[in-house]
Amino acid sequence: MPDLTKGLIEAFTGFVMGRVETTRPPVRTSTGQAQAIYLPTAAPGLGDSGVIIGREVYSGKGYIYDPFQLYGQQLPAPHWLVLGESGNGKSSLEKTYVLRQLRFRDRQVVVLDAQGEDGVGEWALIAARLGLTPIRLDPMAALDQGIRLNPLDPTITMSGQLSLLRTIIEVAMGHGLDERAGFALKVAHGRVAETVRDRQPVLSDIVEALRHPVPDSAELMNVQLDDVRAWGLDVALVLDRLVDGDLRGMFDGPTTVGIDLEAPLIIFDLSHIDRNSIAMPILMAVVGVWLEHTWIQPDRKKRIFLVEEAWHIINSPFVAQLFQRLLKFGRRLGLSFVAVVHHLSDVVDGAAAKEAAAILKMASTRTIYMQKSDEARSTGQVLGLPRWAVEIIPTLTPGIAVWDVNGNVQVVKHLVTEAEKDLVYTDRAMTEDAVAERTRAAQELADNSAA
């Protein structure tokens, strides 16, 4: 009875006040029919030219990315930064990206492989599948006729050699060279270039010239010969470590003959180098400058330079300065630099904050996998990510990442094909067959090196 009374009152009120209430009875339908009522919306993609990465999570659209196609239109620079905690998919993304890029005939890739298990780098399986032999840089192997890269290789310009020598010394010393030490190094380098003509100059020649400067070098600056010798003493001691110390074998001889710079994929296996030692940034500097002068050519090829453990570059002001030049130079000649880093906080608050900011600014593409909340907030602040992206980063599951391509921000699920799985999933949780395959590849690599 109360309901009837309430209904009569509401009807009378509506009649007097001129309001007409309508009742919408529920409708039963299927989701397939109902989707027409709420039209889906999605951010614009990056086009359909390039390599497939996976799917955009919210719209389900395919996600295609290629820095060479986007450069000059949607991208001011073709360089790429990949961030995230271990075990969230950075490694599988790198490998599938490279494998898919290599399907294009005008692509060539260099990888600095700083990870590894079972005595070989992470890229050993891919190299074996493609019939390639990685360039293993190993101090112990180098002592037994292993791979060497010569900082004084004649293919590197004189100015490039001097810059590289300064960087090696500054990284090893942990501080910049003063003017006097820099002068002693410059004089020694010039003398070696003038006097060593019948072979490749090597680091031991520089050490000898520093220890025994000639009178002309002192007369040039109107100083005593003993002063020039004293100025170069610390420099000589640092270089001697590369010649006859714990870092000997990798840089103290002519560049190894037979390194194939025409191969579609060139892998430098650094897995035998202690990633926390001073050798790692020195090695990256040498490889970077050597590649700049021997690998990057104006031949219309599109090149990708992928560096794992790239904080060794970004966190060293001396190495970072060399790579800044490489990145600027490479944009004219079709080079995409890919830096893989675990934590951005490892570099932005370090000694190379200025250089790190410059390199990060050049990276117009940023891919961020799962990070803890504090790290995500600091990363978002440095990279200028939108608030919603920062909030979602700590919740991301393996294989899903936030992609920021010059302000186009989307959440992308990386997809790995069945044919790629045994090549890209290389951690200890692999199947027994994959472990056996890695062991076989390691043995083949050892046999090839011995041969």
TrEMBL record:
Top-level taxon of origin: Bacteria
SUPFAM superfamilies linked: P-loop containing nucleoside triphosphate hydrolases
Membrane-crossing residue ranges in chain numbering: none
Matching Pfam families: AAA_10
UniProt signal peptide: none
Name by which UniProt lists this protein: ATP/GTP-binding protein
Organism encoding this protein: Mangrovactinospora gilvigrisea
